[in-house]
Amino acid sequence: MFVAVVEQHMDHIFRAVSATLPEDPPVRETLRAFGLSILDVTLARAIPLLRVVSVEAGRFPTLARTLFARGPERGTATLTRYLAAQVARGRLRDGDCARMAEHLIGLLIGGAVLWYALGLAPHLPPPDERRRHVEAAVDAFLRAYGATA
């Protein structure tokens, strides 16, 4: 029963986040929207679930595998495909798109978001701080992977 709840919850989150990755708008705008979606939609809902699943993973390993497959694994694959399409259009440097996706996600969910997930901060950062965090993460990502003029 709980596995079905995890599947349904992660499917809802995946649909919300993947909708922010259209291929045509400028990369910076798309990555900003994706980053805000990760922080505003995904993490606010996923962290409590992640906490429960991590506590129960030893007794119910299927839960952790389901959470990973329905959430981070699928989300990273979708982001990887988006990045590959941008590389093909010359908007990003050629490279290992799966690694690029991991780097972007790491930039987005690091810092204050990670401290919140670990219970070291009582709240997610407020919206204006989240926007600044996403902006800085996207800037760093594009400095590393943006197409050169």
Can you walk through the features of this model?
The protein has 149 residues and is mainly alpha-helical. It has a single domain, classed as Tetracycline Repressor, domain 2 (Orthogonal Bundle), CATH 1.10.357.10. 76% of the residues lie in helices and 0% in strands. The chain is built from six helices and no strands. Helix 1 packs antiparallel against helix 2. The longest helix is centred in the first third of the chain and has 30 residues. It is globular and about 50 Å long. The relative contact order is 0.15. The mean pLDDT is 82.
- The total number of structural domains is 1
What would the CATH topology be?
A: Tetracycline Repressor, domain 2
CATH architecture identity: Orthogonal Bundle
| Largest β-sheet summary | none
Q: How many helices?
A: 6
> SS-based structural class?
mainly alpha
Number of strands: 0
* H-E string: HHHHHH
